[in-house]
Amino acid sequence: MTAAPRSSVVVEIGGLPIALHCDDSAFLRSIEERYAGYVGSSDRAKFDFEIAVGPPRQKSGDEDLSVKWTSGRWLIERGDFYAEFDPASSCGCIQQTANPYSLDSVLRIVHSLLLAKKGGFLMHASSAIRNGRAFLFAGVSGAGKTTIAKLAPPDAALLTDEISYVIPQPDGSFSAVGTPFFGELARVGKNLHAPVDCVYLLVKGPENKIEPVADADAVRGLLGNILFFARDPEFVKLVFSAAFDFAGGVPVRRLTFAPDERVWEMIV
Amino acid sequence: MNDKPYVARSTMIAARVLGDETMVMSASDSTLFTLDEVATVIWEAADGTTPLEEIVRKKVCAQYDVPLEVALKDAQTLVEQLAGHGLLLLSDRPIRQASAAAQAVR
Questions:
Q1: Considering only CB atoms, which residues of chain B are within 8 Å of chain A?
Q2: Which end of chain B has less neighbouring CB within 10 Å, N or C?
Q3: Where are the domains of chain A?
Q4: Structural domains counted in chain B
Protein backbone atom coordinates (compact mmCIF):
# COMPACT_ATOMS: atom_id res chain seq x y z
CA MET A 1 0.00 0.00 0.00
CA THR A 2 1.39 3.41 -0.89
CA ALA A 3 0.50 6.75 0.56
CA ALA A 4 -1.26 9.19 -1.69
CA PRO A 5 1.08 11.91 -2.92
CA ARG A 6 0.72 15.14 -1.05
CA SER A 7 -0.86 17.99 -2.93
CA SER A 8 1.40 20.97 -3.12
CA VAL A 9 2.16 24.21 -4.91
CA VAL A 10 5.64 25.69 -5.23
CA VAL A 11 5.78 29.48 -5.02
CA GLU A 12 9.13 30.87 -6.13
CA ILE A 13 9.91 34.50 -5.35
CA GLY A 14 13.38 35.96 -5.58
CA GLY A 15 14.85 32.59 -6.51
CA LEU A 16 13.59 30.98 -3.28
CA PRO A 17 11.16 28.19 -4.14
CA ILE A 18 8.85 27.33 -1.24
CA ALA A 19 6.68 24.22 -1.48
CA LEU A 20 3.29 24.68 0.16
CA HIS A 21 1.63 21.38 1.08
CA CYS A 22 -2.02 21.20 2.00
CA ASP A 23 -4.81 18.63 2.02
CA ASP A 24 -7.35 21.25 0.98
CA SER A 25 -7.28 21.13 -2.82
CA ALA A 26 -9.58 24.15 -3.17
CA PHE A 27 -7.20 26.19 -1.07
CA LEU A 28 -4.24 25.04 -3.15
CA ARG A 29 -6.06 26.12 -6.28
CA SER A 30 -6.62 29.54 -4.76
CA ILE A 31 -2.88 29.72 -4.05
CA GLU A 32 -2.07 28.82 -7.66
CA GLU A 33 -4.37 31.60 -8.84
CA ARG A 34 -3.11 34.13 -6.30
CA TYR A 35 0.57 33.53 -7.16
CA ALA A 36 0.17 33.08 -10.91
CA GLY A 37 3.47 33.84 -12.56
CA TYR A 38 5.39 32.70 -9.49
CA VAL A 39 4.36 29.04 -9.41
CA GLY A 40 7.32 26.74 -10.02
CA SER A 41 7.99 23.04 -10.25
CA SER A 42 8.17 20.83 -7.17
CA ASP A 43 11.66 19.49 -7.91
CA ARG A 44 13.08 22.96 -7.35
CA ALA A 45 11.61 23.48 -3.88
CA LYS A 46 14.18 24.38 -1.22
CA PHE A 47 11.69 24.95 1.60
CA ASP A 48 8.62 23.01 2.67
CA PHE A 49 5.63 24.32 4.57
CA GLU A 50 2.66 22.26 5.67
CA ILE A 51 -0.54 24.31 5.71
CA ALA A 52 -3.51 23.44 7.91
CA VAL A 53 -6.58 25.43 6.97
CA GLY A 54 -9.10 25.97 9.73
CA PRO A 55 -11.16 28.48 11.68
CA PRO A 56 -9.59 31.70 12.95
CA ARG A 57 -7.39 31.18 16.00
CA GLN A 58 -8.78 34.37 17.53
CA LYS A 59 -11.88 36.48 17.01
CA SER A 60 -10.11 39.19 15.06
CA GLY A 61 -7.24 39.14 12.61
CA ASP A 62 -6.05 42.54 13.74
CA GLU A 63 -3.89 41.47 16.64
CA ASP A 64 -0.29 42.62 16.58
CA LEU A 65 2.10 40.55 14.58
CA SER A 66 4.69 38.66 16.59
CA VAL A 67 7.86 37.20 15.06
CA LYS A 68 10.15 35.52 17.57
CA TRP A 69 13.16 33.24 17.50
CA THR A 70 12.62 30.47 20.05
CA SER A 71 14.35 27.11 20.47
CA GLY A 72 15.92 27.10 17.04
CA ARG A 73 12.92 28.19 15.02
CA TRP A 74 10.92 31.24 14.11
CA LEU A 75 7.45 31.56 15.59
CA ILE A 76 5.25 33.85 13.52
CA GLU A 77 1.86 34.72 14.91
CA ARG A 78 -1.09 36.97 14.27
CA GLY A 79 -4.80 36.63 14.92
CA ASP A 80 -5.45 35.00 11.57
CA PHE A 81 -2.45 32.66 11.45
CA TYR A 82 0.25 30.85 13.35
CA ALA A 83 3.42 29.63 11.66
CA GLU A 84 6.69 28.02 12.58
CA PHE A 85 9.83 27.95 10.48
CA ASP A 86 12.98 25.97 11.19
CA PRO A 87 15.79 27.36 8.99
CA ALA A 88 18.05 24.38 9.76
CA SER A 89 15.64 21.86 8.27
CA SER A 90 14.13 24.34 5.79
CA CYS A 91 10.70 23.21 6.97
CA GLY A 92 7.77 24.95 8.52
CA CYS A 93 4.07 24.79 9.21
CA ILE A 94 1.22 27.25 8.93
CA GLN A 95 -2.18 27.21 10.61
CA GLN A 96 -4.50 29.72 9.00
CA THR A 97 -7.94 30.48 7.68
CA ALA A 98 -8.73 29.90 4.01
CA ASN A 99 -7.90 33.53 3.30
CA PRO A 100 -4.90 33.47 0.93
CA TYR A 101 -3.82 36.88 2.22
CA SER A 102 -2.88 35.29 5.54
CA LEU A 103 -0.45 33.14 3.58
CA ASP A 104 0.72 36.29 1.83
CA SER A 105 1.71 37.75 5.20
CA VAL A 106 3.55 34.58 6.21
CA LEU A 107 5.44 34.49 2.93
CA ARG A 108 6.48 38.12 3.25
CA ILE A 109 7.87 37.44 6.70
CA VAL A 110 9.61 34.19 5.75
CA HIS A 111 11.19 35.89 2.75
CA SER A 112 12.35 38.81 4.89
CA LEU A 113 13.99 36.35 7.31
CA LEU A 114 15.68 34.44 4.50
CA LEU A 115 16.71 37.61 2.69
CA ALA A 116 18.34 39.04 5.81
CA LYS A 117 20.82 36.15 5.84
CA LYS A 118 21.72 37.00 2.25
CA GLY A 119 22.13 40.72 2.91
CA GLY A 120 18.83 41.65 1.29
CA PHE A 121 15.55 43.05 2.50
CA LEU A 122 11.95 43.90 1.69
CA MET A 123 10.99 47.54 1.44
CA HIS A 124 7.78 49.53 1.37
CA ALA A 125 8.29 50.62 -2.22
CA SER A 126 6.84 50.15 -5.64
CA SER A 127 9.39 49.23 -8.28
CA ALA A 128 9.65 48.92 -12.01
CA ILE A 129 12.20 48.02 -14.66
CA ARG A 130 12.87 50.48 -17.45
CA ASN A 131 15.68 50.24 -19.99
CA GLY A 132 17.06 47.22 -18.14
CA ARG A 133 17.39 49.04 -14.81
CA ALA A 134 15.19 48.85 -11.73
CA PHE A 135 13.80 51.95 -10.02
CA LEU A 136 12.32 51.86 -6.52
CA PHE A 137 9.76 54.35 -5.21
CA ALA A 138 9.75 54.20 -1.44
CA GLY A 139 7.24 55.63 0.94
CA VAL A 140 4.78 54.87 3.67
CA SER A 141 1.11 54.28 2.97
CA GLY A 142 -0.29 57.27 1.09
CA ALA A 143 3.09 58.47 -0.20
CA GLY A 144 2.22 57.56 -3.78
CA LYS A 145 3.68 54.08 -4.37
CA THR A 146 0.59 52.83 -6.14
CA THR A 147 -0.05 56.17 -7.84
CA ILE A 148 3.34 56.24 -9.52
CA ALA A 149 2.91 52.59 -10.49
CA LYS A 150 -0.40 53.44 -12.17
CA LEU A 151 1.28 56.28 -14.07
CA ALA A 152 4.03 54.02 -15.43
CA PRO A 153 4.38 54.03 -19.23
CA PRO A 154 3.96 50.83 -21.27
CA ASP A 155 7.71 50.26 -21.54
CA ALA A 156 8.09 50.04 -17.77
CA ALA A 157 7.68 46.53 -16.30
CA LEU A 158 6.04 46.81 -12.89
CA LEU A 159 7.67 44.60 -10.23
CA THR A 160 5.32 45.57 -7.42
CA ASP A 161 3.24 48.51 -6.25
CA GLU A 162 3.73 47.69 -2.57
CA ILE A 163 6.70 45.59 -1.38
CA SER A 164 10.00 45.68 -3.23
CA TYR A 165 12.37 42.76 -2.98
CA VAL A 166 16.07 43.68 -2.90
CA ILE A 167 18.88 41.13 -3.21
CA PRO A 168 22.65 41.77 -3.18
CA GLN A 169 24.69 40.37 -6.04
CA PRO A 170 28.16 38.79 -5.83
CA ASP A 171 29.73 41.91 -7.34
CA GLY A 172 28.33 44.07 -4.53
CA SER A 173 25.51 45.56 -6.57
CA PHE A 174 21.85 45.10 -5.72
CA SER A 175 18.99 43.75 -7.80
CA ALA A 176 15.26 44.23 -7.47
CA VAL A 177 13.04 41.29 -8.32
CA GLY A 178 9.36 41.09 -9.03
CA THR A 179 6.96 39.96 -6.34
CA PRO A 180 3.33 38.90 -6.15
CA PHE A 181 2.94 41.19 -3.12
CA PHE A 182 0.64 43.95 -4.26
CA GLY A 183 -1.11 46.92 -2.73
CA GLU A 184 -4.05 48.98 -3.95
CA LEU A 185 -3.25 48.13 -7.56
CA ALA A 186 -4.24 44.51 -6.87
CA ARG A 187 -1.96 43.32 -9.66
CA VAL A 188 0.83 40.75 -9.35
CA GLY A 189 4.22 42.15 -10.36
CA LYS A 190 6.17 40.89 -13.34
CA ASN A 191 8.46 38.00 -12.43
CA LEU A 192 11.59 39.82 -13.62
CA HIS A 193 14.74 41.20 -12.06
CA ALA A 194 17.23 43.96 -12.84
CA PRO A 195 20.06 45.91 -11.18
CA VAL A 196 18.79 48.73 -8.99
CA ASP A 197 19.51 52.08 -10.61
CA CYS A 198 18.08 54.41 -7.99
CA VAL A 199 15.73 54.65 -5.03
CA TYR A 200 13.36 57.57 -4.96
CA LEU A 201 11.89 58.70 -1.65
CA LEU A 202 8.39 59.78 -2.63
CA VAL A 203 6.84 63.12 -1.76
CA LYS A 204 3.64 64.45 -3.29
CA GLY A 205 3.92 68.08 -4.35
CA PRO A 206 2.85 70.72 -6.87
CA GLU A 207 5.47 69.83 -9.47
CA ASN A 208 7.71 66.98 -10.56
CA LYS A 209 11.30 67.29 -9.42
CA ILE A 210 14.21 65.15 -8.31
CA GLU A 211 16.52 66.35 -5.56
CA PRO A 212 19.68 64.91 -4.02
CA VAL A 213 19.49 63.49 -0.51
CA ALA A 214 22.27 63.73 2.06
CA ASP A 215 23.84 60.42 3.06
CA ALA A 216 22.33 60.38 6.53
CA ASP A 217 18.89 61.32 5.23
CA ALA A 218 19.19 58.60 2.58
CA VAL A 219 19.86 55.95 5.21
CA ARG A 220 17.08 57.29 7.41
CA GLY A 221 14.73 57.22 4.43
CA LEU A 222 15.65 53.65 3.61
CA LEU A 223 15.48 52.41 7.19
CA GLY A 224 12.10 54.06 7.58
CA ASN A 225 10.73 51.98 4.73
CA ILE A 226 12.52 48.66 5.17
CA LEU A 227 10.40 45.96 6.77
CA PHE A 228 11.69 44.89 10.17
CA PHE A 229 9.24 42.15 11.05
CA ALA A 230 11.25 40.37 13.73
CA ARG A 231 12.08 41.88 17.09
CA ASP A 232 15.31 39.97 17.19
CA PRO A 233 18.81 41.44 17.65
CA GLU A 234 20.52 39.33 14.99
CA PHE A 235 17.83 39.96 12.41
CA VAL A 236 17.77 43.71 13.09
CA LYS A 237 21.56 43.90 12.86
CA LEU A 238 21.61 42.04 9.55
CA VAL A 239 18.95 44.20 7.94
CA PHE A 240 20.38 47.41 9.43
CA SER A 241 23.78 46.53 7.97
CA ALA A 242 22.21 45.66 4.61
CA ALA A 243 20.53 49.07 4.49
CA PHE A 244 23.88 50.81 4.95
CA ASP A 245 25.52 48.62 2.30
CA PHE A 246 22.67 49.40 -0.05
CA ALA A 247 22.85 53.15 0.63
CA GLY A 248 26.58 53.00 -0.02
CA GLY A 249 26.14 51.64 -3.52
CA VAL A 250 22.78 52.83 -4.80
CA PRO A 251 21.79 56.48 -5.32
CA VAL A 252 18.92 57.66 -3.15
CA ARG A 253 17.02 60.75 -4.25
CA ARG A 254 13.88 62.59 -3.29
CA LEU A 255 11.16 62.52 -5.94
CA THR A 256 8.43 65.10 -5.62
CA PHE A 257 5.61 64.42 -8.05
CA ALA A 258 2.38 66.18 -9.00
CA PRO A 259 1.15 63.44 -9.71
CA ASP A 260 0.90 63.10 -13.47
CA GLU A 261 2.44 60.79 -16.04
CA ARG A 262 5.12 63.35 -16.95
CA VAL A 263 7.00 62.28 -13.83
CA TRP A 264 8.12 59.21 -15.78
CA GLU A 265 9.97 61.46 -18.25
CA MET A 266 12.53 61.87 -15.45
CA ILE A 267 12.75 58.15 -14.65
CA VAL A 268 15.12 56.82 -17.29
CA MET B 1 24.92 62.89 42.39
CA ASN B 2 24.84 60.11 39.82
CA ASP B 3 24.33 56.75 41.52
CA LYS B 4 24.84 54.78 38.27
CA PRO B 5 28.04 56.15 36.77
CA TYR B 6 28.84 53.22 34.47
CA VAL B 7 27.35 53.20 30.98
CA ALA B 8 27.51 50.50 28.33
CA ARG B 9 25.99 50.10 24.92
CA SER B 10 23.24 47.50 24.87
CA THR B 11 23.73 44.43 22.73
CA MET B 12 20.07 44.72 21.69
CA ILE B 13 20.86 47.39 19.15
CA ALA B 14 22.40 47.92 15.74
CA ALA B 15 24.54 51.01 15.26
CA ARG B 16 26.63 52.61 12.54
CA VAL B 17 28.57 55.88 12.41
CA LEU B 18 27.80 58.00 9.37
CA GLY B 19 29.81 61.19 9.12
CA ASP B 20 29.73 62.76 12.57
CA GLU B 21 26.41 61.16 13.46
CA THR B 22 25.61 57.73 14.79
CA MET B 23 22.45 55.89 13.85
CA VAL B 24 21.21 53.47 16.43
CA MET B 25 18.32 51.08 15.96
CA SER B 26 16.61 49.33 18.83
CA ALA B 27 16.30 45.60 18.20
CA SER B 28 13.24 45.43 20.40
CA ASP B 29 11.03 47.73 18.36
CA SER B 30 13.13 48.82 15.32
CA THR B 31 12.98 52.45 16.40
CA LEU B 32 15.77 54.52 14.86
CA PHE B 33 17.70 57.12 16.84
CA THR B 34 20.26 59.59 15.53
CA LEU B 35 23.05 60.76 17.83
CA ASP B 36 24.75 64.05 17.08
CA GLU B 37 28.49 64.60 17.20
CA VAL B 38 28.83 65.01 20.98
CA ALA B 39 26.42 62.19 21.72
CA THR B 40 28.45 60.02 19.37
CA VAL B 41 31.58 60.71 21.43
CA ILE B 42 29.80 59.56 24.58
CA TRP B 43 28.23 56.59 22.80
CA GLU B 44 31.56 55.32 21.52
CA ALA B 45 33.18 55.72 24.93
CA ALA B 46 30.38 53.89 26.76
CA ASP B 47 32.39 50.72 27.34
CA GLY B 48 30.84 49.77 30.66
CA THR B 49 34.02 50.29 32.63
CA THR B 50 34.68 54.02 32.25
CA PRO B 51 32.53 56.20 34.54
CA LEU B 52 30.44 58.82 32.75
CA GLU B 53 32.21 61.65 34.55
CA GLU B 54 35.55 60.42 33.19
CA ILE B 55 34.13 60.10 29.66
CA VAL B 56 32.82 63.63 29.79
CA ARG B 57 36.03 65.04 31.24
CA LYS B 58 38.44 63.21 28.93
CA LYS B 59 36.42 62.95 25.75
CA VAL B 60 33.88 65.78 25.68
CA CYS B 61 35.53 68.63 27.59
CA ALA B 62 38.86 67.85 25.93
CA GLN B 63 37.34 68.30 22.47
CA TYR B 64 34.68 70.91 23.05
CA ASP B 65 34.77 74.22 24.86
CA VAL B 66 32.22 73.44 27.53
CA PRO B 67 32.42 73.51 31.35
CA LEU B 68 32.54 70.08 32.96
CA GLU B 69 29.48 70.74 35.09
CA VAL B 70 27.34 71.69 32.08
CA ALA B 71 28.64 68.86 29.91
CA LEU B 72 28.12 66.31 32.67
CA LYS B 73 24.54 67.42 33.24
CA ASP B 74 23.78 67.18 29.52
CA ALA B 75 25.51 63.82 29.30
CA GLN B 76 23.52 62.51 32.24
CA THR B 77 20.29 63.55 30.57
CA LEU B 78 21.39 61.91 27.32
CA VAL B 79 22.36 58.57 28.84
CA GLU B 80 19.16 58.41 30.86
CA GLN B 81 17.12 59.02 27.73
CA LEU B 82 19.01 56.37 25.79
CA ALA B 83 18.74 53.96 28.71
CA GLY B 84 15.01 54.61 28.76
CA HIS B 85 14.85 53.31 25.19
CA GLY B 86 17.02 50.31 26.03
CA LEU B 87 19.99 51.51 24.01
CA LEU B 88 22.34 51.99 26.96
CA LEU B 89 22.77 50.12 30.20
CA LEU B 90 23.41 52.09 33.42
CA SER B 91 24.92 50.56 36.53
CA ASP B 92 26.50 51.43 39.85
CA ARG B 93 29.34 49.05 39.04
CA PRO B 94 31.35 48.21 35.92
CA ILE B 95 29.31 46.37 33.32
CA ARG B 96 30.72 43.24 31.76
CA GLN B 97 29.48 43.20 28.19
CA ALA B 98 30.37 39.54 27.66
CA SER B 99 27.53 38.39 29.87
CA ALA B 100 25.06 40.68 28.17
CA ALA B 101 26.28 39.81 24.70
CA ALA B 102 25.43 36.12 24.83
CA GLN B 103 23.23 35.45 21.82
CA ALA B 104 21.76 32.28 20.43
CA VAL B 105 23.79 31.10 17.46
CA ARG B 106 21.82 30.12 14.40
A1: 11-14, 16, 18-19, 21, 23, 25-30, 32, 34, 103-104, 106
A2: N
A3: 8-118, 121-265
A4: 1
